[in-house]
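User: Fold this, then the next.

Assistant: Folding the first:
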Amino acid sequence: MLVPTVRTTAVLDAVGDRGYRLVNATIGAVAQSVYTAAAALDVGCGVALGFDNISYIEELGLEATGEAPLLIMMAGHERPAPADYRHELT
């Protein structure tokens, strides 16, 4: 599991409201890079946006730094035929 974190409030203080775009572009680039690297290594990868980030802040000890996780990335062995989509059923 990879948990990229950002000091969003520090970015907003430095560049104003456009900081939201900068933070989201950065975190999106991180996710895309991990997906690309995982594909090149034939490793399964997934990203989750809806999670309890307060628990992650506490577990990772990020309270003092002001960092917050914006997404979590899971990587590992890919299951054979993970989707197993049967088109004839639709």
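Now the next one, as you asked:
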Amino acid sequence: MKINELLIGLEFEEVQVGREVEITHIAYDSRKVKEGTLFVCQNGENFDSHNFVSEALYKGAVALIVEKDINIPNSDVVVIKVKNSRKALSRVSSNFYNDPSKSLNVIGITGTNGKTSISYLVSEILQKNKETVGVIGTIGMEVNNTPLNLEKTTPTTPDSLELQMILKEMQKVNVTTVAMEVTSIGLDQHRVDDCKIDIGVFTNLTEDHLDFHGTMDNYKDSKRKLFELCNVGVINIDDSAGREYVETMCGRKLANENVKFTTYAIDREADLRAFDLSLNPSGSKFKLEYREHTYEIAINLPGKFNVYNALAAIGATLNSGVSMECIVKALKTIKGAKGRFESVLSKSGFSVVVDYAHTPDALENVLTTAIEFNPKRLITVFGCGGDRDKSKRPLMGRISGDLSNVTIITSDNPRTEQPLSIIKDIEEGIKTTSGLYEIIEDRKDAIEKAIKIASAGDIVIVAGKGHEAYQILNDKTIHFDDMEIVKDLIS
């Protein structure tokens, strides 16, 4: 692609054009530069790729996007200076891949909890409606439940270059709808700026990522950005942030004045309202009120939080053109995502549940749901990730201490922090409760102890990692799968 085609729609401060160049590749990592590359220099929290310009040029970069003035000895190199290179990367990536989102129905899902579960519910409903559906998120990238072997360097929302490449590949295999998790960090870092999002879904807002955002207000404002990009917002108005988003949009205080809303709730009036909930370990039933009609809904997913997830998926698929009758029928057979309240029953008569719950609200939801099943005892195993928001650690300790009969505090993904330091932060919260607890640093040993002390009628919750098949310990990543270990121990 010619450089002038790549720059369409890009705001830049100045351009140094040595010659008309052909761009065959885009990179923001100098290690991935090859002949014909446009190298985008980003100034990150822990790096500044402006420092690697010489390496990029040596490897064959023919054009640069920069935020700083730099000296280039080669006058043939095109240099484009911009205010924000992350925004620029989004624009040129979309141009390079010919804006694939334009031909797709893109459903972006944001919120602290529930994003993965909702993306899978949406995918399953649409597949049963004979659509080809792509999923992009925490678990990976899939088309109709088949993994795509594509690179994604971020855990949830891909960087804009990777995102446009993934959407292009999905377009090639005739995907009609993409259900994509959109994180607050992804929104702040302009990863989805040039992705046409048809439907935006908001689940809830509880404490998380404060190491990045600093305050809950900043966190809330970051998620609000999704509704400046989409045409339809599907919003949980039982959540105060959700109500605020709707109110501010109705007051036309956001950039996109044309966005329309479908609201959902359990505790207040909404476009989609669930009532008469019946919850049990094998699933949930509820009545749904929509446009003066009442529908009987059954899902194979336990817990009130899964009723909220189902409401969000219903709102997203209704706005994608699926009839309520088709949605109701599809929901009856859906099993949900891996590592989301995934349970096994032991021969001794106790259950073990593996769940991704890694925030205070998510942990409380999982434990509250387990309590609704009247276990003899609730035994919880969990830890917190290192190099992440420290403020949630004592909160999660307090929640487990209040709701569990026994808590075993262990390691999660400690990364570069000392596991016992993280555990001490959790312990500060649990010590304020009367809950019994034990500290076992090694996660496998902790799970083994919980299973060893469990007896018939108990529920063991192993929280924090869910679908993850790895553990990050300082500078190495080892294979570690909670459910794999659980099944091995109870076999």
